[in-house]
Amino acid sequence: MVVTVNLTPEQVLVGVGVLLALAAVWRIGSRRARKAAEAARASARAVSLAGRVLFTAAVFVGVQWLVIANPGNTTLLLVVLALPDLIAAYVLTRTLTVTSLDTTRRGNRR
After folding, report:
1. Any stretches that span the bilayer, and where are they (predicted)?
2. CA distances (Å), 78 to each of 62, 72, 75, 82, 88, in order?
3. Strand, coil or helix: what is 3?
4. Is the model's pLDDT at 104 over the cut of 60?
């Protein structure tokens, strides 16, 4: 049994056009999906960071409250009150410090 297909040039062009259209729609859809996934990851990172910050702050407040509620050791009180300030100062200093790398494409000449 031999199957013979007789297609006109117009039918071949329509078939090629449909295949190109499907490929274009697939690429556009995959780009949109990738952008949506990146946006979802970015918002998840922000929520995760906020959660970690709140948890750490709650731990600091809890420890400080325990030390203040049970007075007696002045050194421990000063350490517990100063430690979060030192951590915050370090983080802010690192965040606000501007560093620049003035390099060219040929090397590290300035």
Report:
1. 12-29, 49-68, 74-92
2. 15, 12, 5, 6, 16
3. coil
4. no
d(CA 76, CA 43): 39
d(CA 83, CA 96): 20
Enumerate residues 6+ apart whose C-beta is below 8 A from 101. none
Mean pLDDT across the stretch 5-23?
A: 89
Beta-bridged to residue 64, according to DSSP, are none
Residue-wise pLDDT for 29-88, tens only, equals 888 888 888 877 777 777 777 888 888 888 888 888 888 888 888 888 888 888 888 888
Strand partners, 107: 104
Of 93, 92, 88, the residue nearest 57 (C-alpha): 88
Q: Write out pLDDT tens, residues 51-64.
A: 888 888 888 888 88
